[in-house]
Amino acid sequence: MKIVDVPKPDLVINIFKQCESGNIKQAIVEINSLLNDGYNAYDIVQIMSRVIGDNTQLEDEIKFDLLKEVSYFKTKVLDGLDSKASIYGFLGNITEPFLNKKLKGIK
């Protein structure tokens, strides 16, 4: 069990990169690795929020959409909805802004 520890930002950035490329399966593998290392859903979502806020390369629209999803999921976690199924759904939700951006580029 980890005490007063959060995942390294690089690990979370890798999860975002997997979501950005639409590789949900690998993002799930990465999340499972963090969970197996003893981090809980709140630890993960807390560092995700910080990583998004500190990122200067994300477009403002995508950053806003990601922060909205992270904040919504954080409230669910605080309400006790931190099952793996909830986390996997959250990964799908944070993949959506990236896919929407790619779809806009197709038109």
Domains (count): 1
- Radius of gyration over alpha carbons? 13 Å
**The CATH top-level class label:** Mainly Alpha
Q: Percent of residues in helical segments?
A: over 70%
The coarse overall form would be globular
Structural class based on helices, strands and sheet pairing: mainly alpha
Instruction: Identify low-pLDDT runs.
Output: none
Helix and strand element order: HHHHH
User: How would you characterize the largest beta sheet?
Assistant: none
The name of the CATH architecture is Up-down Bundle
Mean pLDDT over all positions: 88
**What is the rounded distance between the termini?**
49 Å
> What proportion of the residues form beta strands (DSSP E)?
under 5%
The total strand number stands at: 0
Count of DSSP helices? 5
From the 3D structure, determine the CATH topology.
Answer: Zinc Finger, Delta Prime, domain 3
Folded structure, characterized:
The chain has 107 residues and is mostly helical. It has one domain: Zinc Finger, Delta Prime, domain 3. The protein has helices at 9-20, 24-36, 41-54, 60-78, 84-106. Helix 1 (9-20) runs antiparallel to helix 2 and helix 2 (24-36) packs antiparallel against helix 5.
